[in-house]
Structure formats: C-alpha cells, structure tokens
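Tokens in:
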C-alpha cells in the first residue's frame, strides 16, 4: 500500500512541474509552413544586408537611398540623430514588421526588419548601412 501511495504522491507533485509555463514556453513546434516562413525571413535579411552594402556606399545620394528602400519594401524617414557627438548627424531609417518562424522562448512568430544608415543634412550616405532583424515577442 505504501509504494502505491508514494507513487501517487510523486505523480501529484511532478505533474504541475511538467506542465508549468516554463516547460511549455521553452518548446515550440515548428511545422513546415513555419519553417518556410523562417527560411524566407532569413533569406530576406541576408539579401537586404548584401544589397545595402553594395548599393548604399558612402556618397550615395538621398534619391538613391529613397529608391533603394522603396525597392526593398521599407518606408524611409530622414531624421536628425540627437545622440551623436557632432550634433549634425542625420539618419535614414526604415522598419517593417513581418513574420518568420521564431525560436523556442518566443511567444509568436512576429519579427521586424530594419535598415539604418547615417547621412549628412542633404541625405548623402556617410557611413556603412546597418541591417537589424529580430523576433519581437521573445523572452
């Protein structure tokens, strides 16, 4: 009788631990559609990094920056950056929200893709572009 009671007690103690939110959050099933979205997202990030490096070289004019962003589906804003040392640095930046296939620990497949490049007051590129990509609902 005691072995059955001990077994039942262990089951009652361990069951909540096995089905706790921690255990559920750390694993996500990735079906074929999710994996395909993830591959497309990763390919888009890689392509944007490559194209930005090739097309947004130092000296690229504002019109070409705008065209590049439009061709890549990114809205672009030219803003003065208040935190730079010189005080006269501007930035061209664009961000879109999309989906991919988030890794374990994320609440959804929501992601963002961003491009940022420093420009002068006329909108001419003065630094290398930076591409950022991240899943937005992760721990």
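Residues out:
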């Amino acid at each position: 009788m005691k072995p059955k009671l001990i077994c039942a007690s262990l089951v009652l103690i361990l069951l909540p631990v096995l089905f706790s939110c921690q255990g559920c959050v750390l694993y996500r099933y990735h079906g074929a559609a999710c994996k395909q979205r993830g591959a497309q997202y990763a390919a888009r990030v890689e392509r944007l990094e490559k194209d930005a490096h090739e097309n947004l070289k130092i000296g690229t004019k504002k019109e070409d920056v705008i065209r590049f962003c439009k061709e890549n589906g990114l809205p672009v804003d030219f803003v003065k950056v208040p935190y730079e040392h010189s005080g006269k640095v501007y930035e061209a930046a664009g961000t879109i929200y999309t989906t991919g296939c988030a890794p374990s620990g994320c609440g959804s497949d929501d992601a963002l893709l961003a491009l940022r490049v420093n420009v002068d007051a006329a909108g001419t590129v003065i630094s290398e572009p930076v591409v950022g990509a991240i899943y937005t609902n992760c721990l």
